[in-house]
Amino acid sequence: MRTYRQDAKTLELPWPFTGRSEELERVRAASAGGRPGIVVTGPAGHGKTRLITEAVRGLDHVRVTGTPEARDLPLAAFAHLLPDTVSLHRAVRALSGVRVLVVDDAQLLDETSAALVHQLAVHGHTRLIVAAADGAPAPGAVSRLWTGELLPRLPLGPLPPEDTARLLAGAALEPLTVRRLHQACRGDLRLLRDLLTALTEPTPVPGPALTGAGAPSRVPGAVFTGAGVPMSAWEEALAGAGVSAPAPGPAALGPSDGLTLLPGAGLAGRGVSVSAPGAGLAGRGVSVSAPGAGLAGYGASVSAPGTGRAGAGVPVSAPGAALGPSASPVPLPGTGPVGTGRLESVAGTGEWAWRGPLPVTPAVRERLAPALERSGPGERDILDRLAFAEPLPLPLDELDERDLEALEHLEADGLIDIGEQGAVTLAHPLHGTALRAAAGRLRARRLGRAAPAYGPALDAERRTLVRQMERLDVRPVPTPVGEWLVAHGIPLPARYAEVRARFARLRGEVREAAAWAREGLRPAPRDGGCRGELRLAEGCPDEPAGPDDVHARYTAVRLGEPGRAAGRLPAGSVLARHADALARGDGPALDRAAEALAERGFTLYAAEAYAQAARTHRDPSAARRSRTRAVALARRCQGASTPALAGLVLGELTARQRQIVTLAAAGLSNREIAEKLTLSVRTVGNHLYSAYTRLGTADRTALPWLLDTPDRETA
Fold first, then answer.
1. CB atoms within 10 A of CB 669
2. Which of 254, 528, 611, 705 is deepest in the core (most CB within 10 A)?
3. What's CA 604's distance to the chain center, in Å?
4. How far, CA to CA in Å, does 438 sit from each of 286, 360, 388?
5. CA nearest neighbour of 648 among 621, 614, 625, 616
6. Residues 490-523: tens digit of each pLDDT
7. Which H or E run contains 667?
8. Residue among 611, 517, 512, 602 at smallest CA distance from 560
9. Distance CA 138, CA 117 (A)
């Protein structure tokens, strides 16, 4: 579900409420009459407060909030509801008339306020909607709300990857960047917003301006140009994701075709030479000879000592040279390849990618405190060694016996993970970046790992993925090396990228498949395997497949023609069971085949099988269940469109609902639909609400997944 609420003071849209449909219904049901209420728990930043706010919207309710400052003041959280001096008994009586009481940050309540909340739960006259953070000590009266079974408990997990992608849709980020943000934040939406803001805010550039290859870079006094993306469109995209864009001001985006002249510092273009000292340059085929000049582009060379550079194929030998776009990582002594750490455009897609180090924001520093403030003997040394070993684990046999006690402390505090084979890694993806940044130059040089060391591990990941696909099992497997290299802008071998693209495509992650294929085409633009996977991910119907490709033979089943695949699929395999169930027109068997496909990671195949089952079932309720499962799985397939999913749920809508839903899926607002159909905005909203109920969603961005619209990805 997605809702927006405009801030009354700033008139800006906050972070949109996305997903959480089941959790939202549970909280709403607990707020209804005859229910005692509910306790929502989860780590800080997971969206507990926002979930409750959406659930009680429109209800008559009272809110209290615990704060660290007032934790020692009796009844401080209820000061706006009670007299200055009141006993606990009288406070319970005074609040017994409140129908719904929302208690936020209940772990921060003072003991008297916690006892008051507990007594209200015992009396049962007031429905309590309580939010409490995990991992923080809470008053006993608060924890007994759920341990004593006075109120049901709803543990709030991280936002799923598909909902994170919809949350960030307005920022036009490419899928590998979305996945990286999701993994780095681990469900902390406040940290996610903070990182996205840091990636798009102006970057102070002392002296020469460094812009290049379509990477957005804001330089004081410069003009935003290039790539057909005006500043207003970029800020509008951020606002759509609930992120407030930086304050309007001069900025620069140096593209491959744009020309930006910065007074005495920045120049972006093609075939431009700069000889003035201190000039900054971004372009292609550019030579710079002046000392201190900054350069960004393709095929450029830098010979002056200390010259800054950004671009692809640019040799840099001067110590401390400035780095630019991650298309050409430069291994610095002791640190390995590094990128820009800001967004850059992805050619031909209209999307933006994050390649490079993590921006260390205040929220990131807060998360890093447990790792950076370790004072135990040998603990910080172990953390540094693990940080510089990334993305590879550190074997236990490389550690001394005297380090075992420090390892036990670090593992107990959740800072490291120890695998079954004794491999040690940092537990949080944020820690490695900060530890490497905090290390001195000599320590970084001593602990750093050369880039060729990643080769064997990368090849091992590729073989594992190939083996999984041969077993018809595409459930996620750990691939830290490939993901780390892509995140830092290091070109991948085409063979590896092709396998990653194929694995993602079979999982139904068609946009990620295309992104992996593009990564392989960066160092090898003519690679046939990556080009073929890119065409398949983009739904090219003419892309040939080998005669031995089991998935090519399985295509007939996906198209509803199982007879063409009879005897050509591996006997007893889940693909063969799907074909047999479809040939017999057996709805329950199709449901079982779909469930088996989903268990093996074939999300798109499972959605198609459920859709076929929905059309096969004679029992309307069974058909509705299959359709609901098909819709849920299809929404995880990044907009993939196939014949089996076409018009999946339109048959259950009225003619007017189909008309309005189709226009909404095409991107029209309620007002635009009302003007087009000569209806009132309220009528359009009512029809959409009824349609959402039948479609099993309340998220407008999910409509292209449910309807057969031409602007979706095909697979």
1. 13
2. 254
3. 20
4. 35, 11, 12
5. 614
6. 899 999 999 999 999 999 999 999 999 999 999 9
7. none
8. 611
9. 13
Structure tokens at 225: 């140009």
CA–CA separation, 643 and 417 (whole Å): 44
- In the DSSP assignment, the letter for residue 315 is -
Averaged pLDDT, 399-424: 83
Contact 594, 616 (CB under 8 A): no
- Band (pLDDT 50/70/90 cuts) for residue 696 is low
Q: Which helix (H) or strand (E) holds 606?
A: helix 603-616
pLDDT digits (tens, 9 = 90+) for 53-78: 999 988 899 999 999 998 889 999 99
Closest to 492 measured CA to CA, from 534, 521, 460: 521
Count of alpha carbons within 13 Å of 193, Cβ hemisphere only? 19
> Strands 266-270 and 260-261, how do they pair?
antiparallel
Please tell me the predicted confidence (pLDDT) of residue 339: 36
Beta-carbon neighbour count of residue 279 at 10 Å? Answer: 22
Residue 477 falls in which region: left (phi positive, over 0), alpha (psi -120 to 50) or beta: beta
Name the DSSP class of 637. Answer: S
| Structure-model confidence comparison of residues 285 and 194, the more confident one | 194
* Rounded distance between C-alpha atoms, residue 120 and residue 629, angstroms: 40
Q: Given the DSSP bridges, would you call strands 287-288 and 301-302 parallel, antiparallel or unpaired?
A: parallel
The answer for residues whose C-beta is within 8 angstroms of residue 86's C-beta and 6 or more apart is 75, 94
Please give the Cα distance from 692 to 56 (Å, whole number): 20
HSE of 223, CA atoms in CB hemisphere, 13 A: 10
pLDDT exceeding 90 applies to what percent of the chain?
35
Cα–Cα distance measured from residue 480 to residue 663, given in angstroms and rounded to the nearest whole number = 42
d(CA 711, CA 714): 9
3-class secondary-structure state, position 236: helix
The dihedral sign for the CA sequence 240, 241, 246, 250: negative
Instruction: Give the span between the Cα atoms of 511 and 492, in whole angstroms.
Output: 18
Cβ–Cβ contacts within 10 Å for residue 140, how many?
A: 12
Query: CA dihedral in degrees (274, 277, 282, 288; nearest 10)?
Result: 60
pLDDT tens, residue by residue, 214-232: 333 333 333 333 333 333 3
Q: Inform me whether the pLDDT recorded for 17 exceeds 60.
A: yes
